[in-house]
Write a structure and sequence with these properties.
- The protein is of the alpha+beta class and about 300 residues long.
- Among the domains are: about 1-60; about 170-265, Immunoglobulins (Immunoglobulin-like, Sandwich).
- The protein contains 4 helices and 17 strands.
- The protein has helices at about 1-15, 20-25, 30-55, 275-280, and strands at about 65-75, 75, 85, 90-100, 100-105, 110-115, 120-125, 130-140, 170-175, 185-190, 195, 205-215, 215-220, 225-230, 235-245, 250-260, 285-295.
- The chain has a 5-stranded mixed beta sheet with strand order 3-17-8-5-6, with no helix packed on it. Strands 11, 12, 13, 15 and 16 form a 5-stranded mixed beta sheet that branches. A 4-stranded mixed beta sheet has the order 2-1-4-7, with no helix packed on it.
- Strand 1 (about 65-75) and strand 2 (about 75) form a beta hairpin.
- About 20% of the residues are buried.
Amino acid sequence: MKTLKAVNDAVVGILPGHGQDIEDSTDNRDPATGWRRFGKLAAISLAAFAMLAVIGCSGDSEPEDRQFSLTIEDGKLTSESMSFEVKQGDSVTLSFDSDEEGSVHLHGYDIKVAVMPDMGTKLEFVADATGKFNFEFHHGEMDMDMEHAHDDDDDELCKAEIPAGAPTPSFTISASPGDMDGEIRVAVDLVNYVLEPAPAGTTMATGHWHLDVDGVEIAMYEEPEITEMLETVGEHELMATLYDVEHCSYGITAMTNVTLAEGAAHEEDEHEEGEEEHDEEEEGVVLGAVEVYPR
């Protein structure tokens, strides 16, 4: 109401004789003229109210098609920004041009596409899950048996369906340092969701959950409480995502942070030096991140 009054006052201020009461402004004037002035003021006030109503209803936006053209040179993006913001429900297209052969992997959504010189590549997805999702570049030819691929080996994330009549799942995630250096304890508190193997006759959503640490997928779990080892100290961002038994995502996520004072000690490497170098070559380089905000 304060906003409407401000608009009304502003409208009144542009009329001749503003600042006077209607009764005063019609003193010593033709009554017909006074009523015409009053009618004009009322009409403008109604128009202002209609404009405010339209503005008030414009907050809910429809999903959009968001497209970003990105160039990879020497294993990194050439753009100044490394973070690309979209809203939940948007259709997102990341178009890549690369000066060398390799692949780009979008974590969290588990999508991986091949890139090579003189061939544009599009990574497309619907931003169902909210959060920050890193995408990284892997040098060399794309491995079709990629580390983070699911059994169906689809390039695109499949969408899990909640059983008809079943309530929508929800959950929270918590994490804390463990007893050993670098150890974290992670627990999920699930509602309307059953971890597999599910009891016979279960009508609720069923499946497992995935854990991402700092945008990198760690593993999938069928237990509500797990432990993992991290090598680096400091604060880490954890994100859990619910999947069904077919490894399709429900698009339901939960996030938390954990801080480690000590990282996991490096174990004595039992591999040959050549194998160590090979592992380092396969490690991905983070190019940037897609940040999906609630609509």
